Amino acid sequence: MTYCVALRLNEGLVFASDSRTNAGVDHVATFRKMHRFAQAGERQIVLLNSGNLATTQSVISMLRSRCQHDAPHLLNVPSLYDAAVQVGQILREVIARDSVGGSGVDYGAHFLVGGQIAGERARLFHVYPQGNFIEATEDTPYFQIGESKYGKPILDRVLDTATPLEDAVKCVLISFDSTIRSNLSVGLPIDLFTLHEGDLHPAAPRRIDERDVYFQSLRRAWGQGLRRVFARLPPAPTSGIGTERDEKPGH
Amino acid sequence: MTYCVALRLNEGLVFASDSRTNAGVDHVATFRKMHRFAQAGERQIVLLNSGNLATTQSVISMLRSRCQHDAPHLLNVPSLYDAAVQVGQILREVIARDSVGGSGVDYGAHFLVGGQIAGERARLFHVYPQGNFIEATEDTPYFQIGESKYGKPILDRVLDTATPLEDAVKCVLISFDSTIRSNLSVGLPIDLFTLHEGDLHPAAPRRIDERDVYFQSLRRAWGQGLRRVFARLPPAPTSGIGTERDEKPGH
């Protein structure tokens, strides 16, 4: 499985992905799920992927290989929208190619495609296995792919489009912590990339593993804080809560 | 969809279920998913269910109808184990009966079966659509069925077998709050039932709806507490976090 999140906020973009893949519990490996296509000063495009590893690797290989040729590619398309179109097209091609046998295997994959190209603002798209896609908006400033449910409540409680990038990074890392604790198929290291709106010379992506001091202190502080809040909640009246039901016991 | 949780702790059992069912987003209704078979002073058995509503209603009807006859039934079986066996058998029968057409519909359902019968300690089982089942233990003191992922992180962080029932009820209600916020197909009211180990004269199940004062105050205090803890977490260094990656930008 996989967990990836990307946010499009007023201040810029945040991307994060885990790096565990598995085909059954006895075939677990580490693969990067974050891929960057960048020309410093001109464009920063990041892809996150979930789903069939053969499919996602082929899509990335084909996208990279295109960049050597004259055709439109991620390093020369005029807008992020065109980048999403291209990812969708290639994703469709790869799935069509590999599905020929009809083995019942799920060849599907999802991509989050985000970034900024000089001349337009930062944008973020979610490309579906069918090759079509949606764009993040003010109302829905984030997308998740893969094992998304465990880590969704904290995003829903904390994030909106005005959240500062620093806070957004904290929130995303907590979302990963909750997911990693609840699902063995999502694992460290986390790849993390932050793009401030308009800054086309960003710092390189960072890799966060179990020795990362900041992530350790964040996990610890969050876990302790939650338990402290929990301990101070009003006690549950073990009787007297809610409205008594008039159900007849027995039959 | 559905969300149900049941816990088997040292102090006793907690059961909670939502009450929303849906067949598509335009066919939403309220159905109780908690059913009790009880003889005050002698046995308290509670069933929670998820899955196909026709299946679960039929299973409950057949279990109730059996109680009118001489055969073994939930009001006379000698142990909770036998209750789980009976639920599994009837579940299998109903699914086999309804699947005859082979329409591609999922007729499956899950049941949590827990309670206490005089002479043995409180027990809790998870009955699968196949009719077999597992029992909660000290290491795994809770089961969830239905839309379980959103509400799992808080259970994993707070609960163990020594958790007092009062705290367990708080934790379960927070787990419901997170699920209800993230998934429209899970909704109030919540049915809640608590059984103290050895007390075979428990208070009736309670129904918690949006006007419930305790639940409102709990949701508010939890949401505020989380945001307070979040605000005090160490700030994310937007640069300098993790180990810089040596990935080459571009192709």
Task: Set down the secondary structure blueprint.
The structure is a homodimer of 251-residue chains.
Chain A: E1 3-9, E2 12-17, E3 20-22, E4 28-30, E5 34-39, E6 43-51, H1 53-66, H2 80-98, E7 109-117, E8 123-127, E9 133-135, E10 142-146, H3 152-158, H4 165-182, E11 190-196, E12 206-208, H5 213-232, E13 243-244
Antiparallel strand pairs in A: 1-2, 1-10, 2-11, 3-4, 5-6, 6-7, 7-8, 8-9, 11-12
Helix pairs in contact in A: 1-2, 3-4, 4-5
Keywords:
about 25% strand, about 30% helix, disordered C terminus, homodimer
Largest sheet of chain A: 5 strands, antiparallel
The CATH topology of chain A turns out to be Glutamine Phosphoribosylpyrophosphate, subunit 1, domain 1
Structural class from helices and strands of chain A?
Answer: alpha+beta
Residue-averaged pLDDT of chain A: 90
How many helices of chain A? 5
Q: In which order are the strands of the major sheet of chain A placed? A: 10-1-2-11-12
* H/E topology pattern of chain A: EEEEEEHHEEEEHHEEHE
Oligomer: homodimer
- Our estimate of the beta-strand percent of chain A is 25-35%
Number of domain units of chain A: 1
Task: Write down the overall geometry of chain A.
Answer: globular
Largest interface, with Cβ-Cβ < 8 Å?
A: A-B, 73 and 70 residues
Q: What integer value in Å does the Rg of chain A equal?
A: 21 Å
Helix content of chain A: 25-40%
Q: What is the CATH top level name of chain A?
A: Alpha Beta
| Low-confidence parts of chain A | 240-251
CATH superfamily annotation of chain A: Aminohydrolase, N-terminal nucleophile (Ntn) domain
